[in-house]
## 1
Amino acid sequence: MTSLSCYYNQLVSIDVSKCTALVSLFCNNNQLTTLDLSKNTTMRQLDCSNNQLTSLEVSICSYLHCQNNLLTDLDMSKNINLYELYCYDNQLTSLDLSKNTELKDWDCSNNQITSLDISGCTRLNRLLCFNNLLMSLDISNNTGLKDY
């Protein structure tokens, strides 16, 4: 199995540890509190939005939607091919995307982020970061940002 869609259920847990060839997982709109993807090293697409996750460890995704959870931390340093990240409506206070140079589409709105360094995200063409605690934002290196 390379793809699993189990969204819009009442799942409180899911075990995909034996699905080591899993490339896409869509488990959004459930009641998950944990999601262990440590054995899923081929995962490229993950949508785990609208759950109750407090932590998330993903190491190779290029497409990640984890919005509307209870995340306080999100480590994206191993996701060097990440091009789309939706992590809005969480409880994030910081987010380091300095190694995510392929990132094109990012929404981190409605968190508690105090600073964003997007200088390395030179391919970024969409950034939504409203309703955070930002005091400044340097977009001088982000010449690809577009009006939406």
## 2
Amino acid sequence: MSKFVVITGSCGGIGRALVETYLKANYSVIGLDRLALGTNSNDNFIEINPDLEEFSKNKRYREKILDQIKSLLPNDLEEFILINNAAEQILKNIDDMNWQDWQSSFAVNTTAPFFLVQGLIEELKKTRGHIINISSIHSKQTKANFSCYAA
């Protein structure tokens, strides 16, 4: 069975746990993170290190990353999952936040997941795939300096 999952934020705590869980379930995992995990020697783990803010803003860069992901998928793809887990967590007092902070946060947390879905929609349709969007408790119950992230 040809089972693939793309996991953004694959180096963070939740991301690493997701990578390990899917590898144990015999999926091939494509991990997307600006940082390199570097510690996984499993042949079924492939790491790509995109800048998701740039991915959100730059169509050529986005196409390059999407082409790279698609080139790793087999023709006989039977199951496909996209897990949007990456997050840009800018912690600042609301008075100190600027336009770039807001743009960076939304680029990684909202725009990149949209463009990943858009760019991988045919693979998702073909396999009746799944999209899992990981969110944070801060969208409902937040604390000081989390305004941008909570939005």
